[in-house]
Amino acid sequence: MPHKPMKVAVTLLAALLLGPILIGADRMQEEVQKVFVTNFPQTQHIAGSVSVEGLIKHAQMQRLKEIVVPPVGPKETTRLIQAGTLTTDGFTSMVLSLDGQLRGKGLQPGTIGGILVPDEDSVDRVFEEEGRTPFRIELSAPWVTGSSVYFASGSERSMVAFPRYRVFLYSTTDKTVTVNLYAYLTN
Question: What's the predicted TM-score (pTM) here?
Answer without folding.
Answer: 0.69
